[in-house]
């Protein structure tokens, strides 16, 4: 292991050890999987995984989280939470992530206290400082610990360490909640969220791993973001464009477009003047 990375890794373990016990907010993504694996190594049975089950989370993610915990012998608690019932969230304002995370993590803090766990920890890392993330403010207000961030770990660091530990998520595509697919001000409904999820699962079934289906214009326009290197296959594979258009229109979208700039995290935050 490269020396600087080794120092970060040891700092992470020391941070977790000092907590004595923790509820790990576990989404089955790259960051939280690595964090949970190390927390379980350091804290043993005193590291418990909390996975939110909500309209913003695809069921496949909850299932993956459960499977990982079973395989690793980690106690796993699924936390049902109706994010659309949080006041203001369905209107999808620019601070939606703050409202959502404040309510969800307040609930997790209460559950952790009930179980005698000393802290709630999440998988935020150093790269999260580079985008508009109002949810980080909620985490700070609630005293949520971010051990990866505290250790100075970047996404690239986490992927490298995950690969060393043999974690299946080391090269997993970056993920975000389904609400992030909607332009701010677009009303969030269960039906619209389910349609986005179904559209993305269709594209995944065609072999595309890193992608987003963004929603605009009253949930009538689906804007597909693929990796730039995947665009040629999408545009030239026999029948794929036509099948995609038909499938997404059958889900209820009126227009289907492909973003020529390609996939990028946080594209809905572009132009916000940060």
List keywords for this structure.
10 helices, 3-stranded mixed β-sheet, alpha/beta, Rossmann fold, 2 domains, 4-stranded parallel β-sheet, 7 strands, 274 residues, Alpha-Beta Plaits
List the helices and strands and how they pair.
Layout: H1 3-19, E1 22-25, H2 30-43, E2 47-53, H3 59-72, E3 76-80, H4 96-114, E4 120-121, H5 135-142, H6 147-150, H7 155-164, H8 190-205, E5 211-216, E6 221-226, H9 231-236, H10 240-251, E7 255-258
Parallel strand pairs: 1-2, 1-4, 2-3, 6-7
Antiparallel strand pairs: 5-6
- The poorly predicted ranges are none
What's the CATH class label of the largest domain?
Alpha Beta
Q: Enter the CATH topology name of the largest domain.
A: Rossmann fold
Oligomer: single chain
- The helix-and-strand class reads alpha/beta
Number of helices: 10
Widest β-sheet, arrangement of strands: 3-2-1-4
According to CATH, the homologous superfamily of the largest domain is HUPs
- State Rg: 19 Å
Q: What order do the helices and strands follow?
A: HEHEHEHEHHHHEEHHE
Fraction in beta strands: 5-15%
Q: Kindly state the mean pLDDT as a whole number?
A: 94
